[in-house]
Each structure stands twice: as structure tokens, then as C-alpha cells.
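Possible regression after last week's pipeline update?

I re-ran a chain I had predicted before the update to compare outputs. Posting the input and the new output here so someone can diff against the archived version. Not blocking, just want to make sure nothing changed silently.
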Amino acid sequence: MICMTSLWSATEPAHRIHFWPAGQRKVDPLGELQVTVIDRLKLANVRNYVGYGPYRPKSLAEHPKAKAFYQDQVSTENTTTSG
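New output (post-update):
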């Protein structure tokens, strides 16, 4: 019987933190979106990198199934900049 008590060696920390650079994914505007993506767009607040807020990745802004969720964001931006 094999028993593994640790996946890390004695010289490595018990945790590892990975940071990825920010970047935009390319989304095919004719591609299918998973139902979970639309569900996430519908939520008022979701956990994101810096806290909580609406799920609005720029890469989905022009996708036909997601575009309506960005209209409110554009309206709000126009209202705050025109005042």
C-alpha cells in the first residue's frame, strides 16, 4: 500500500500562487456560448479578480447572445459622462 502524505517536497512551500497577465480572449461572434456563461451574465454580482461586480468580459460584448447584457453598461457610461 502506498501512502502519500504530501505532494510537495520538503523544500517547497505548501502553497503556490500563480499570477497570469491580463489579456483578452478572442470569442467567435458566431460561436456557441455555454448556458453557464449566459447565467453568469444575468447575475447582478459575481466574484471577479478584484472583488464583486457584474460579469462583463470585453471579449463577449459583440457576441449576439451576450450583447444585450452590455447595453445597460453603455447606457450607464453615457449617463455618467454626459452629466
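Follow-up from reviewer: compared with the archived run. Residues 35-82 form one domain. Marking as no regression found.
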